[in-house]
Amino acid sequence: MSIGNILIVEDDADIREGVRILLESEDYCIREAENGRQGLELLDDTIDLVILDIMMPGISGLRTCEEIRKKSNVPVLFLTAKAQESDKLIGLMAGGDDYLPKPFSYAELLGRVKALVRRYNVYQGKAGTDQEEKDAWLELRGVRIHRTYNEVFVDGKAKEMSDIEYRILLLMMGHPGRIFSAQNLYESVWEEPYFYSCSSTVMVHIRKLRVKIEADPKNPRYIKTVWGKGYKFDAGNEQA
Question: Which residues get modified to 4-aspartylphosphate (predicted)?
Fold first, then answer.
C-alpha cells in the first residue's frame, strides 16, 4: 500500500532511476518526468511531494517551481549540483521547501522525503464536515488560521501558504508576543538540527510570509523582527 505519491522531475535518467528505486522500496508511489514541462503536466492534487532538479534544459527547475506554486502548495525538494548559499536562497525564494545538493546520500534524501511528506499529510489535509467548529481556528488581529489544516485568511481574504509558511505562522500565532530565535523556528518547523547557515533559510521564509499577510511587508504589523533576538507575532492592538 502506498504511503505517498511523489513526482520526480529530473533530466538525468540514472539519478531519476536511483531515486525511484529507493522510494519505491519504501512504499512510495512514483511518477517520473524528464523535464519541467512534463512535470507540470503530471502534477495533480494527489501528489504529496515534488523532487525537482534545478538545472534542466528548457524550462528550469526554478521556473517549474514558480509554476507549481501558482496552482499547488505541495512541498518541493530541490536537487541541484550547486551548493552555494546564494543558490539555496534563490531556490527557496522560488517557492521551494527544502534543498539537497548533489551528490547526496540516499539516507539523507530519504530523511528529507519522509519529513516533508509527513508534514504535508498532517497539515495540508482537507477538513471534514465537522472541522468548522470555532475551536478549530485561531484568530488574532484579523489573521485567521486553522489549527490543523493549511487554511489562512487575512481580513477575510484567503491566503495561499506553503507548508513551511503555514507552520511558521501557526507556531507564532499560537504564542503571540513570544520571541522566537531563528534556531527556535528552524528546529520546531523543519524538525531538523539547526546550523548557523539555517538562519538565512528562516529569514527567507519570514520574508515570503510577510509578503503574503502584511499590507506593507517592509513595515509589518504582524510579524515583527526583534533585533538580535528573533521574530514575534505582535499581539498588540491596532495602534500598537
Answer: 53
For residues 69 and 227, give the distance between their C-alpha atoms in angstroms, rounded to a whole number: 31
CA 67 → CA 33, 38, 116, 118, 147, distances in Å? 15, 12, 20, 23, 28
Is the pLDDT assigned to residue 78 strictly greater than 50? Answer: yes
Half-sphere exposure of 168 (CA within 13 A, CB side): 33
Q: Report whether 99 contacts 78 (CB < 8 A).
A: yes
What does residue 44 show for φ and ψ, rounded to 5 degrees?
-145, -175
Helices (H), the chain: 13-24, 36-42, 61-69, 85-93, 106-123, 163-174, 182-185, 198-213
Q: What pLDDT, on the 0 to 100 scale, is given for residue 107?
A: 84
Averaged over 14-23, what is the pLDDT?
92
CA distance 65 to 77: 10
Three-class SS state of 103 = coil
Q: Three-state DSSP class for 83?
A: coil
Looking at residue 228, its amino acid is: G
pTM of the model: 0.59
Please give the single-letter amino acid code of residue 3: I
pLDDT for position 9:
96
